[in-house]
Amino acid sequence: MAILVTGATGMFGSAVVSALAQVGVEVLAMTRSESSAEKLTHGNVTGVVGNLDDPESLPALMQRADRMFLVSPMHPSLGQREVTAINAATSAGIKQIVKLYGAVRHEGDQLDTQHQMSIERLNTCEVPWTLVSPQTVMETNLLGQIDGIKSERSMYGAAGNGRIGMVALDDCIEVASTVLQSDPKQWESANLEITGPSALTYNEIATEMSRACNETITYVDMSEEEFSSMLLEYGFPEEDLEMQVLCHFRQMRNGKASLVTDTFEKVTGKPATSIYDWMQKNLDLFDI
Ligand SMILES: NC(=O)c1ccc[n+]([C@@H]2O[C@H](COP(=O)([O-])OP(=O)(O)OC[C@H]3O[C@@H](n4cnc5c(N)ncnc54)[C@H](OP(=O)(O)O)[C@@H]3O)[C@@H](O)[C@H]2O)c1
Questions:
Q1: For 184-191, what is the mean pLDDT?
Q2: Does residue 184 register a pLDDT over 90?
Q3: pLDDT value of residue 122
Q4: What pLDDT is attached to residue 107?
């Protein structure tokens, strides 16, 4: 069985490639660049070149795959890119599509509109599909704060007192990898929403991180305007700000990221990773 993983150099894709490779599954790891494809190739992983903006680049790859893990970056073309991939997979007779979605209730914003376009296409295709839907991820939120934590033990954001069921990347990858190795019918048309074990405010997250490292980490809450000015000053690309950062903090502040589920425990039989456990595991990354 060969599994095509799109976005294979990105955060989710690269981790799914590693998880599948570790258990001996044959993986086709897709990237747009020849040199990345070469770097990805080792053991049972073959780096392959494809571009979701170029439908012609996909049929030959899909012919070699039995299943697809579909992930694409948060971008105004996410919907069209994923529809292109689903069309190519369907034409090639792929047996399962596992799409990365999300568990934050974005409800009609630009990111959700793009994801809905992709989900609507899945709803009309005959290939069994499953959505793997992480709550907002610890690696994105907390590793994204690494410089401030290292230098002044501070994190910055605009999440107010919104509760967040933040989830560890490893937990999401374990669920995705399990689904990709299971009978496609087992979770057919399911939306597997994966979260941490509890919903905490950013202040409470800072407290849990502090407890895990015996240092005081402080969360500094800002208005959305102050926060975006700070990010722009640090060189964050303006065109990516809304879809990659601001819409997430807005939903957190509005309580739309507070969902907590037992999906991880149900699928794997293990408890979901807490902020405290995640921090203890990652102390080295923060030089603590
Ligand atoms: N971060 C979170 O907390 C979170 C939570 C829930 C859901 N999500 C979802 O996660 C997804 C993003 O995943 P990610 O963070 O792993 O993505 P990512 O790291 O931003 O990007 C994935 C890869 O996509 C490839 N790519 C870019 N444009 C492409 C194109 N036109 N065709 C083919 N590949 C292209 C790039 O690889 P190459 O340059 O090598 O081609 C890139 O490394 C989104 O759907 C988002 O909604 C994120």
A1: 98
A2: yes
A3: 98
A4: 86
Domain ranges of the chain: 2-133+169-193, 140-163+197-286
pTM: 0.97
Q: What is the pLDDT of residue 108?
A: 86
In whole angstroms, what is the distance from residue 225 CA to residue 250 CA? Answer: 11
Which atom of ligand 1 approaches the CA of 167 most closely? 3
Q: How far is the CA of 91 from the centre of ligand 1 (A)?
A: 23
Cα 10 off chain centre by: 9
> Which option is the CATH number for 140-163+197-286: 3.20.20.140, 3.30.565.10, 3.90.25.10, 3.40.30.10?
3.90.25.10
- 2-133+169-193 placed in CATH 3.40.50.720: yes
DSSP secondary structure letters along 11-33? HHHHHHHHHHHHTT-EEEEEES-
Alpha-carbon distance of 184 to 121, in angstroms, equals 18
Q: Is the pLDDT of residue 137 over 90?
A: yes
Ligand 1 centroid to residue 165 C-alpha, Å: 21
